Amino acid sequence: MPPFLSTARAIGSLMRSSKKFNEIRCVSGFKPVLGRRDLFGSVIQTRRFLGCGDGEEGGVLSKVYEEKRVLGYSPEQLFDVVAAVDLYHGFVPWCQRSEIIKHNPDGSFDAELEIGFKFLVESYVSHVELNRPKTIKTTVSESSLFDHLINIWEFNPGPIPGTCDIHFLVDFKFQSPLYRQVASVFFKEVVSRLVGSFSDRCRLIYGPGVPVLENPNEQRL
């Protein structure tokens, strides 16, 4: 792992490089969620935040984002693409390595992923729970980067055959003040590109999707 830059120098570099993202807006489908219970029965502990701010409370970053979109692929197709964690290094932005390290009797598995972003290179272990084709939940279990990170994907039949109403939620908290500053600048872009990468992967594997009329309250991939 390359040595870390000083905090001031690193943030200055990120702020300068962020100019090319100036026109990117916060996705309209994102909204705060409080005390939500997911389909696995777990209560997601969250904190309120305003807009796309850094959501800081008590000196530690905590954010929750939701996004709902209708895509021109079936729930089964989207589920299979998101569930293929071992292939993430080939198409998910900033993922440099992805490997399944343990299969569990209940059908879940543990995967180790390495992410590289500017000066930051970190690896972590994520526990992945599957309920095909309805839900995927990933929970980081070993990480020096996150206090916690939970991703939940829900896949439901869309308004017309062959489409999917997708609901993506991410709940995370960084441990480092440096990462808090990075997230405040880049997180909108990170999430948008993350979700978009799965739509692009579906297009590559399955071909053009079923045409979907855009909803003014949603952003189409």
Structural topology:
Blueprint: H1 7-17, E1 36-37, E2 43-44, E3 56-57, E4 60-61, E5 63-71, H2 75-83, E6 95-103, E7 109-117, E8 120-131, E9 135-142, E10 146-157, E11 164-174, H3 177-206
Antiparallel strand pairs: 1-2, 3-4, 5-11, 6-7, 7-8, 8-9, 9-10, 10-11
Helix pairs in contact: 1-3, 2-3
Key traits:
221 residues, alpha+beta, 11 strands, disordered C terminus
**Helical/strand content category:** alpha+beta
What's the total number of strands? 11
**Overall pLDDT, averaged?**
74
Sheet having the most strands: 7 strands, antiparallel
Q: Tell me what the CATH architecture is.
A: 2-Layer Sandwich
Please tell me the total number of domains: 1
CATH topology type:
Alpha-D-Glucose-1,6-Bisphosphate, Chain A, domain 4
Beta-strand content bin: 35-45%
CATH superfamily assignment?
START domain
How helix-rich are the residues, as a percent range? Answer: 10-25%
Family: Belongs to the COQ10 family.
Domain Coenzyme Q-binding protein COQ10 START: 72-198
Protein name: Coenzyme Q-binding protein COQ10 START domain-containing protein
Subunit structure: Interacts with coenzyme Q.
